[in-house]
Amino acid sequence: MNKLHFNTFSIFALFVLFQICLSSFAQTKMNINDNWLYLENDTQKLNEAQKASNWTSLNLPHTWNAEDATDLNPGYRRDASWYQKKLNIPQIDKNRVYSLYFEGSNVTTKVYVNGKEAGSHIGGYIGFSIDITNFIKEGNNDIFARVDNSYDIEIIPSQKSDFFIYGGITRDVWLVSKYKNHIENIKITTPEVSAKKASLQVVSSFVNPDNSKDLSLTVTLKNPKGKKVASKTVLVTDRTSTITFENIKNPELWDTEKPNLYRLSAVLSEKNQIKDSISEKVGFRWFEFKDHGPFYLNGKRLLIRGTHRHEEQAGVGAAMSNEQHWADMKSIKEMGANFVRLAHYPQDPEVYRACDELGLLVWDELPWCRGGIGNDVWKTNTKNMLAEIINQNYNHPSIIIWSLGNEINWLPDFPDGDNDKKTNEFLTELNDIAHKMDPTRKTAIRKYYEGSHIVDVFSPSIWSGWYSGSYKSYQKAIDVYKKEYKHFIHAEYGGDSHVGRHSENPITGENVIKAEGWEEAIVQTKVANIAQIGDWSENYIVDLFDWHLHISENDPTFVGNIQWAFKDFATPLRPEDDIPYMNQKGLTDRNGIPKDAYYVFKSYWATAPFAYIESHTWTERQGPENTPRTISVFSNCEKVTFFHNGKSLGEKQKNLSLYPANGLTWDVNFTKGENILVAVGKTKEGKTVSDTLKVNYRFNKNDTAISLQLSSEKLKNGNYLVTAIAVDNNNLRCLDYEASVYFQCLKGGKTLKNQGTPTGSESIRMANGKASIEVIPDGSGNPIEMTALNQSFKGEYLKIPIN
């Protein structure tokens, strides 16, 4: 059976199964991501799109900005495109309603079914349904969707935000079928929760076009082990009904260490025949922000240990698979985090499921990011989006905060858009909407001081050691804000680091910058800071994070902080960064591969024992003979023993009150050539873990770089890694050379470019005199021909035989 026949058969079989399901279940939901057509054409006329001949095949999710966002050309495509799908529905039941559910389509979407407009949606990052009941027919149906991410100041987020606004159908699409009488929505709250007992309230809304008088709703609650805890049936006499379960004894609480989830099912019946059913997971928990003090979950103090997450990945942009979403969240949890701020917009439904199941508290954010206050159309769009966010994500126990925006009065898009009075009036309106729709959660905002009194929780801006001042000022900053704000939390701190760049003496700004400041300025041109003058080394960021965690982990009255950001992410505002168009503040690169800083957090937060010698990307070093270097080991073990070339340098006990590395540091007198470093960690239970690092050390310092040397190695995936090394006249690697180098594949293959990763950009600044790029052979068997060049070296050439 050839591939075409197989795909056709598979699609037919799926729809047959879909129809069988119609007769067996009240509600069906089928993923229709596969086999779409795509047209990069901004015409607004459906007939012109239909006549076009240059449609291409693809599967969803998809964005047309997957690579142009991170190529070397300024700007990225902000325009409209079309998507098309043949949707086969062999049989239509007149007693059912059919809809298409888009989990996210950015930014505006208009959907056509069989030549007629079926519906539209304004705003990306949030799901929506298009009712197609009156437009479909039995057999093949033509689905067309026009998606537009054009510049539009009336739709948040502002284009002045520090991230790309990816265009396309960036999340899953589903075909949904329900009986005409069905459950429209359920909202689950837990009015009372304690360790001894809890209550549960379910508010259900219904669609009942025929005004049937014979509807009943049965709600059943099962505990995490699947045992029925409570069940109740009520007659449906209105468009909404409320069922309450009181006195649920000894509830298994949801928390960050044991995220216990109950299962709730709501079944709508008509004359004992099931018409619809919905299943949701439920978490019993309560929380409190103490006035001018810490955070409590289920009556116990919980230090918030957080990070931020942007929804994007190398090679696909925002069109991430569910597996990629889960990989991010698992990595965040494995690091030991218990909190994630979803920046700066609501994210894929799979992310919230992951947070519920993994035990990650969530700050969910309305994408009012910069741009100031807008006109009446802007206000309507913004309020609608907030309502959509709360309605769709209401039942997730992981969510504790609805954020109403970030840096909202920065860089206004509209005249008088930074007017505090007007902004506060609208912010108050949003705050009231959030509390009315959901009185159980807190509202928050970051870095809009004039509105700090309006929301429940406020985050000022503290960028100690990066955009302002020294990281040593961090304790002073949080002490100031703990007193000033009733419910204070610190979101965003950190700095950029370039993978593989290291320094024996990282730039700290001492005697150059004003050490006591910590505020980030909107315009950086008048402010001397580490972001501008620093070396962007991994060492410095390790020290910065280590200090921040040293402070936060030892302050019993601190609520906690949220590091910025978990992964490197793409941004149109940073074309001159070491990797162009990348915000490199991630604890991992854009593919999720950990940098050194990841292990700093892991040493404070993670439970699975590990040891990590700083640094696995620092294996070539130089310095004077008989000059010891301090080596840090980041570990969560109680004790660590360190070895140099087989000789023990002693055992040390981890001590949270010590800095750096909680006291796990050793002075190593490197020998010339290869040095083998081994760290052995031992837990309280006696379990051991180890880490080994080989360092090549030299006593003579390199001279000025005079040329590039190119080499290659074959990777396990069949591609080749081409590496450029800057060398001096003695053929020594120039560990201080940091200029950009430009790669090009002339023949025999193509570079893996536009990825925004350390080996996936044709332009990249060197890290200690080294830069690499992955190259994909073209399959011809001909040699790969590569060049690497910059203004200093003009151009070097490498020919790689294919074997």
Structure description:
- There is one protein chain.
- The chain has 803 residues and is α+β, with helices and mostly antiparallel strands.
- It starts with a helix and ends with a strand.
Distance between the termini: 33 Å
Radius of gyration: 28 Å
Beta-strand level of the residues, as a percent range? Answer: 25-35%
> Mean pLDDT, as a whole number?
94
Helix percentage: 10-25%
Secondary structure layout:
Layout (H helix, E strand, L loop, with lengths): L2 H22 L2 E5 L4 E4 L6 H6 L4 E3 L21 E10 L6 E7 L5 E6 L2 E7 L5 E4 L7 E10 L24 E7 L2 E8 L7 E11 L7 E8 L5 E8 L4 E10 L12 E9 L2 E10 L4 E3 L5 E3 L2 E2 L2 E6 L12 H13 L4 E4 L6 H10 L2 E5 L10 H18 L5 E8 L13 H18 L4 E5 L10 E3 L14 H11 L5 E2 L38 H4 L4 H15 L7 E4 L5 E2 L11 E2 L12 H10 L5 E3 L6 E3 L6 E7 L3 E6 L2 E7 L11 E4 L4 E10 L5 E11 L8 E8 L5 E8 L12 E8 L1 E3 L11 E3 L4 E8 L6 E6 L6 E5 L3
Parallel strand pairs: 21-22, 21-28, 22-23, 23-24, 24-25, 25-26, 27-28, 32-38
Antiparallel strand pairs: 1-10, 2-3, 2-4, 4-9, 5-8, 5-10, 6-7, 6-9, 11-12, 12-15, 13-14, 13-16, 16-17, 18-19, 19-20, 29-30, 31-33, 33-36, 34-35, 34-37, 37-38, 39-40, 40-44, 41-43, 41-45, 42-44, 45-46
Family: Belongs to the glycosyl hydrolase 2 family.
Pfam families: DUF4982 (PF16355), Glyco_hydro_2 (PF00703), Glyco_hydro_2_C (PF02836), Glyco_hydro_2_N (PF02837)
InterPro entries: Beta-gal/glucu_dom_sf, DUF4982, Galactose-bd-like_sf, GH, GH2_Domain-Containing, Glyco_hydro_2, Glyco_hydro_2_cat, Glyco_hydro_2_N
